[in-house]
Amino acid sequence: MRTLVLCLLLALFVRAEDQKKVEAIPDDEAKVALADFKKAFKKTKDLEGKQYLVYNLHDKPHELVIKQLERLLKNKNKDIGGVAALALGGQAHDPARAGKILTNAYKARFKDELVVISVMVGWTELRYIGYWPLVEKAMKDDRNAVVIRVLKLLGDNKDWRAIPKLLEMYHVAMPKRVNWKTGEVKVDTGASGDTDQKAAEAKFNAKYGAGGSKAKAKAKAKARAFDERNFSNELRRAVKGITGEDFDNALDFEDWYVENYVKVHIAIAKMSGVDVAAAERRAKAELPALKAKVDEDRKKLEEELKKQREGR
Known about the structure:
By secondary structure, the protein is mostly helical.
């Protein structure tokens, strides 16, 4: 297990732009490496030793190695599958194929948190961007570790497609005033500290009762499974990785988004492989309505804040 942890820690520092061109090793070298691997893997009994052998394939880029790692990704032991995903990150001589295999593993083993996180590390190293819109859904996964890794992936890959969703998360995680939100109840008092949280908890208890029933426990777990405020630091880093800008709150991010709306959607179109000129025209047509909506939202916010200041 220590080997896997070490591999993960090392892989966390891989950034897409740091990757150099990778050439496949000669066929004879690949065949020898795989023969040695299979012999040692079969002989080795402890898990850590097996993980070490699998991760060593990271530095043996070749089609035969990709096929071997694809088989290992299906290993019933998630620790082996997780390291195989990391090792596939080194198969950058054929990033499209390696990335697609990782995508298939992501779908098949989505319940295995370790494999999912390792797949995203592999995608980052490969500079693979064919994970959208699968990853878009994972931005609100119940598992905090998965969301954190998603945000790092998006930032490291400079994924402009995520900007609209990241802005939505910013509005909850870092607004100008506190907004406490869960899947079951929502309370927004405009207060600081934990006032909103306590108010929401009181509302929750009023709705589900103060007892210890299984129904209440299930509802409470669902309500608190995902809270954007858990990821404020990761959100800032992801947005800065993509835009180069560091925003303290949603309003500043929103102002930048409006100012750069056309630029953002041109970048999204390029990453998505769609007609860039059409995307530019559409963004320019949408911009007046967006500006009007933002202005209206700001006026409403100012009115609400004014009422609070006046004690109404």
